[in-house]
Write a structure and sequence with these properties.
- The structure is a single chain.
- The protein is an alpha/beta fold and 461 residues long.
- The chain has one domain.
- Helices cover 50% and strands 17% of the residues.
- It contains 14 helices and twelve strands.
- It has a ten-stranded mixed sheet with strand order 3-4-5-2-1-6-11-8-12-7, sandwiched between helices.
- It is globular, with a radius of gyration of 23 Å.
- The model has no long low-confidence stretch (mean pLDDT 90).
Length: 461
């Protein structure tokens, strides 16, 4: 065997080992997630209601969100919760977002002053009104990006806890009550993430899901089942290990005191949600502060996903660059013993199976094709292995979807199962590789657009 053949054989072995480890982690995550969801389902209605509900400020950052902002606020006004406020943060929208909020909810201009505890760009108008017993505030400021407008919201928040919610999202009536449960049970909890699902296809009436079906569009349906694998698989597993590194920016609860202590959101990072969570880990570990960052599966948020491949490419480009920036900024987590499983497990997972995955899988596939072309390997074996890998991942994905349907008591039809089947194969055979190309090429010119919101086309709920 020549040196070139030996090198190709070693690379092929490492590539297949990488795929097997990734598949094993996926399977383990789904199994742990299934056990957790079944346990939660069995305990439903048996948990004692905690009386010490913390007051919460709900922050809704908005930039050109006139299509969805009213329905989002209306869903917040239907929450089954005693004490909370809604703060809509308009980051210099070019459409009628602010005017629509003022007119719809009859807000009146206020002379309220906001102290800049966390630095951010200045605001120029505050409007307020109590709507159905809930204080609704609209703050308008010059454009500074999502991190900057959230920092203004933290400065304006009256309560000790704040909830971040995307302006295109809908909450169920029990979502806020469920996401604060970990805080009520454990005073050391400083942040809680909720479960995010694709809203296209859901109908919510009076805060309750009244109808659900998977979207017909392949791009949307593929994202819906992808969210199932993430939020009902790896997120649950990493939460069991007390090592969650991400709380989705679409739906997350934070203790204001700790966020202020670390300086709020980083305005120079594309992945401001992940950066904040990693910064909280870093701060608490370095200062020997007992803390927990949790994930609550019963707290559900329905958020709009990109409906076209163009918008999906924009979103995933930002996500990938944000991941790169965060892992690069906090690389010491990988070597610091004090970070425990946050560094030894979560950081390693996001480094090797998220950040490096596009490069490893693309190079590995290229090497395999070269080996087949040079007749150093059998086409039959590699094609069989690849199809088996796709079939395995597809089976795990379908299992995740069925677990969600069971846990959320969603009525699904045989048509939905057919959608899952064709969307799963579309995802692994085509979309997976398209998005790998997007990630690999995402570094081209990213510095020029790093402060942009990266908006997608919205549709009415």
């Amino acid at each position: 065997m020549s040196i070139s053949e030996s090198v190709l054989a070693i690379v092929e072995f490492l590539f297949f080992a990488y795929l097997l480890i990734n598949a094993s982690f996926l399977l383990l995550s789904v199994v742990v997630g299934g056990v957790h969801l079944h346990s939660k389902y069995q305990q439903e209605g048996q948990e004692e209601q905690e009386e010490n509900e913390p007051s919460v400020s709900i922050l809704v950052p908005a930039y050109n969100e006139e299509v969805t902002i009213v329905s989002s606020i209306n869903s917040l006004l239907q929450l089954d919760y005693k004490n909370y406020e809604i703060i809509v943060l308009d980051d210099g929208s070019k459409d009628n977002t602010a005017q629509l909020v003022r007119d719809t909810f009859l807000l009146e201009e206020s002379d309220r002053k906001i102290e800049y505890i966390i630095p951010c760009k200045p605001y120029h108008r505050v409007s307020q009104r109590v709507v159905d017993g809930i204080l609704v505030t609209l703050i308008e400021k010059e454009n500074g990006g999502k991190g900057d407008v959230l920092n203004l919201g933290i400065n304006a928040a009256q309560y000790d806890y704040f909830l971040c919610l995307d302006a295109d999202s809908l909450l169920q009536s029990d979502s806020l009550k469920n996401i604060v449960r970990p805080v009520q049970k454990d005073a050391s909890v400083i942040s809680v993430g909720g479960q995010v699902q694709v809203s296209q296809g859901v109908e919510i009436t009076n805060g309750v899901v009244s109808h659900y079906q998977l979207p017909w569009q392949l791009v949307l349906c593929s994202q819906a089942i992808e969210y199932d694998c993430s939020f009902l698989g790896s997120r649950i597993f990493l939460d069991y290990m007390d090592s969650n590194l991400i709380i989705s920016g679409a739906f997350g609860l934070f203790h204001k005191k700790y966020v202020q202590a670390v300086g709020g959101y980083d305005t120079e990072t594309l992945g401001e949600d992940m950066e904040l969570v990693m910064k909280l880990h870093y701060y608490c570990c370095n200062n020997n502060i007992p803390y927990r960052i949790c994930y609550e599966t019963s707290a559900i948020c329905w958020s709009q996903a990109p409906s076209t491949l163009t918008d999906l490419r924009k979103q995933r480009r930002r996500w990938f660059l944000g991941l790169y920036q965060c892992l690069r900024k906090y690389w010491r987590m990988l070597t610091g013993v004090r970070f425990g499983l946050v560094g030894a497990l979560s950081y390693v997972y996001y480094l090797f199976f998220e950040l490096l995955a596009p490069f490893v899988e693309s190079i590995g596939l290229l090497i395999v094709l070269i080996s087949v072309f040079l007749q150093h390997a059998q086409l039959t074996f590699f094609s069989s292995f690849f199809l088996l890998y796709v079939a395995f991942c597809s089976l795990v994905t379908v299992t995740s979807f069925l677990q969600r349907a069971y846990f959320q008591k969603l009525f699904i039809t045989p048509v939905d199962l057919c959608k899952v089947a064709y969307a799963t194969f579309f995802r692994y055979l085509f979309l997976h590789w398209i998005l790998h190309f997007v990630r690999i090429t995402s570094f081209i010119g990213y510095r020029k657009k790093k402060h942009e919101w990266g908006g997608i086309v919205r549709t009415k709920h």
